[in-house]
Design a protein that fits this description.
Layout lengths: L2 H9 L3 H15 L4 H20 L8 H12 L1
Length: about 70
């Protein structure tokens, strides 16, 4: 089944049902093995690298990120 169709149908549910579905989906992630989690993180890293290579995401210097983080913590 296409994930776009599932997403569309899920978003059309009433708020309470969406919340219950979200809780079920989140709890299903707890059942992942370390190997599955590692594979997902590697896939995420590859996706982010691809976005950077294509110019779809913006690089932010570490010093700027640190400054913004410190400002949020104040």
């Amino acid at each position: 089944m296409d994930s776009a169709i599932i997403t569309s149908q899920a978003l059309s549910l009433p708020a309470q049902q969406r919340a219950e579905l979200a809780a079920q989906l989140l709890s299903s992630l707890d059942a992942l093995t370390e190997t599955e989690i590692e594979a997902l993180w590697l896939q995420e890293a590859a996706n982010r690298a691809s976005q950077m290579d294509q110019g779809l995401s913006k690089r932010i210097p570490a010093e700027e990120v640190r400054h913004q983080a410190n400002a949020l913590l104040k």
